[in-house]
């Protein structure tokens, strides 16, 4: 398998603060693989996602992030996006003044500059993706996430993932706040839009989405680093016994505050 993302002993903190949040993360995602990252609240899962995407709020203090063999540590967020990285937000922002359809098309043109697909064809793709997600046509003419329900916001993120066709999709708690019907739709569409070579890092607190999106690997993330890796069975163990079972097994202290 060809490595898509390699995180090497990554350490990071909030810029202008002294508290280390990422404490030596190591992770390799190969093309086509789905990796689930599970951990209690406050363990730093979302911070890892933001650092991978180059959020300027955070400062990398040591280690490296390689994407298709190239270090991206010094690249801006938009430069990383153009390389093929995508991140969905746990709490998507509302953006007044920019309609969803306009945003999708402009983003696609910016990322896939060499693609000569026509506007008509792009709109057909958007319409089909929207139908798959049970989003009506009016949704596309609304401002980004403005007035959207929680479920619509999460579906909007998967719509973007499917339309922009990234090489790596980082999904930060895409399942949070969804009822079972919305969860099933979101999960089905993650499976639908994930192409053969797309890598996925699925960050979650619970195992339930993994009933629908089956990971190749499950990583348990505690206090700023990965402490255990296994198959989907590991996620089921955590669901049944909680993260606290790792305290005795691995001699670590877990706070779920």
UniProtKB/TrEMBL annotation:
Domain ABC transporter: 5-248
PROSITE patterns listed in its UniProt record: ABC_TRANSPORTER_2
InterPro entries (UniProt xref): AAA+_ATPase (IPR003593), ABC_transporter-like_ATP-bd (IPR003439), FeS-cluster_ATPase_SufC (IPR010230), P-loop_NTPase (IPR027417)
SUPFAM superfamilies: P-loop containing nucleoside triphosphate hydrolases
SMART domains: AAA
An example molecular function term from Gene Ontology annotations: ATP binding
Keyword DNA repair: no
Protein family membership: Belongs to the ABC transporter superfamily. Ycf16 family.
Protein name: FeS assembly ATPase SufC
Lineage, broadest ranks: Bacteria, Thermotogati, Thermotogota, Thermotogae, Petrotogales
């Amino acid at each position: 398998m060809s490595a898509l993302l390699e995180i090497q002993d990554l350490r990071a903190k909030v810029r202008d603060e002294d508290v280390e949040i990422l404490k030596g993360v190591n992770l390799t995602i190969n093309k086509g693989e789905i990796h689930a990252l599970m951990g209690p609240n406050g363990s730093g899962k979302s911070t890892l996602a933001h650092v991978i995407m180059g959020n300027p709020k955070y400062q990398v203090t040591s280690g490296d992030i390689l994407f298709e063999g190239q270090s991206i540590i010094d690249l801006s967020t938009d430069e990383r996006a153009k390389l093929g990285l995508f991140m969905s937000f746990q709490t998507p922002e509302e953006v007044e003044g920019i309609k969803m359809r306009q945003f999708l098309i402009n983003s696609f043109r910016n990322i896939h500059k060499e693609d000569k697909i026509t506007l008509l064809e792009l709109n057909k793709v958007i319409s089909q993706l929207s139908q798959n997600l049970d989003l009506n046509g009016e949704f596309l003419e609304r401002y980004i996430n403005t007035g959207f329900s929680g479920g619509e916001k999460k579906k909007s993120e998967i719509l973007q993932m499917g339309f922009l066709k990234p090489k790596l999709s980082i999904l930060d708690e895409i399942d949070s706040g969804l009822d079972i019907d919305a969860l099933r739709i979101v999960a089905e569409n993650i499976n639908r839009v994930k192409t053969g070579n797309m890598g996925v890092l699925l960050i979650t607190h619970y195992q339930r989405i993994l009933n629908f999106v089956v990971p190749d690997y499950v990583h348990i993330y505690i206090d700023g680093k990965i402490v255990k890796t296994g198959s989907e069975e590991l996620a089921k163990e955590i669901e049944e016994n909680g993260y606290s079972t790792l305290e005795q097994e691995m001699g670590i202290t877990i706070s779920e505050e």
